[in-house]
Design brief:
Blueprint lengths: L12 H11 L8 E6 L3 E6 L3 E6 L5 H15 L10 E5 L9 E5 L4 E2 L8 H15 L21 H13 L6 H13 L8 E3 L8 E4 L2 E5 L6 E3 L2 H4 L1 H5 L5 H19 L6 H26 L10 H13 L4
Antiparallel strand pairs: 1-2, 2-3, 3-5, 4-5, 6-8, 7-10, 8-9
């Protein structure tokens, strides 16, 4: 996890208004209200259609916001689900010493609080979104902080998290979880071009409405690499009975595009790596969820149930 260093400046609606008056005065008279406090940023609603994101809790947030501002506007028009498109960049100032951005506002409820329940519809929406996103990235595209590369690079962290969660009594069958992970690490690596990845598809970064996905947010980890890191989302985000539908739909979409774009379709090895990435994501969610249950800083109780559900699905279908 990123080192946390909460910004000393108190975040208030008046601060947001002052920053807008100073750098984007045409937006300064719109109503401002708190939207959410995320892992890296605070989100403030700006009128009905915009939001202001200010880094507050991690040292890395500044670079992540600048990366979104640089790359997401060109990717967003290709995507079939709404995403927060950067509109303006705010530079560090005496009033607030870090960069910040104004984006479009994406309505919906966070998926950790309102999970998707319509299996087929949600699977198809996620598959369509990732098919559109997973295009070869250009030279100079960002490299992931700790994702998008070979899974073996994550082995030490996974072993540590699995041991910790097991000691707390949170993992019913650690050997089964370990077997899924080890099979994923043993799978051949991604041989295709580095593809655009969201790289952070946990439940709080997707939005839902009427039981299905309606938006994807927080592209701070946008990078180029192995699509398995995003394909893992099927086990984490979708309800029971949806994973096979998702992968079948994704494969068929990509196969249709591959013929025209010289883009390899995901093979069995990619699915094995995706399962390992799902183990990694599930363990993170379980530990953050347990920290929330215990009232510890940074804990989020709503992250635990999706992680537990994912491990249950992954170990129930081991070898498939």
């Amino acid at each position: 996890m990123a080192h946390t260093a909460h910004t000393a400046t108190e975040m208030t609606a008046e601060l947001v208004r002052e920053l807008l008056r100073d750098q984007h005065p045409d937006l300064a008279d719109l109503p401002v209200r708190l939207g959410a406090r995320g892992w890296d940023n605070q989100l403030w609603r700006l009128g009905d259609d915009l939001a202001v994101r200010l880094p507050w809790a991690t040292d890395s947030a500044d670079g992540l916001l600048r990366k979104e501002h640089a790359w997401l506007p060109s990717l967003a028009p290709q995507l079939p689900l709404p995403v927060p498109v950067p509109q303006r960049l705010g530079e560090p100032s005496e009033r607030f010493p870090r960069p910040w951005i104004v984006t479009t506002w994406v309505p919906g409820a966070p998926g950790d609080r309102a999970p998707a329940t319509r299996a087929t519809h949600s699977a198809d929406r996620l598959a369509g979104f990732l098919t559109a996103l997973h295009r070869p990235a250009p030279d100079g595209a960002p490299v992931g902080r700790d994702r998008g590369g070979p899974l073996a690079e994550q082995a030490e962290g996974v072993a540590r998290m699995l041991a910790s969660a097991t000691e707390m009594g949170l993992i019913p069958d650690p050997d089964a979880v370990r077997a899924v992970w080890e099979d994923a690490v043993a799978a051949p690596g991604w041989a295709g071009p580095a593809l655009w990845l969201h790289a952070d598809l946990h439940p709080a970064n997707v939005l839902t409405a009427d039981g299905t996905l309606c938006g994807v947010i927080d592209f701070g980890d946008l990078c180029a690499g192995d699509p398995a890191y995003d394909l893992a989302a099927a086990w984490i985000l979708l309800p029971d009975g949806a994973v096979d539908r998702f992968h079948d739909t994704y494969r068929s979409h990509v196969a249709a595009r591959s013929r025209a774009a010289d883009r390899p379709a995901p093979d069995a090895a990619t699915m094995r790596r995706a399962r390992g990435c799902a183990v990694l994501r599930a363990l993170v969610g379980i530990l953050i969820g347990e920290a929330g249950v215990r009232g510890r800083p940074g804990g989020k109780p709503t992250w635990g149930p999706p992680g537990h559900a994912a491990l249950r699905r992954l170990t129930a279908t081991a070898g498939h």
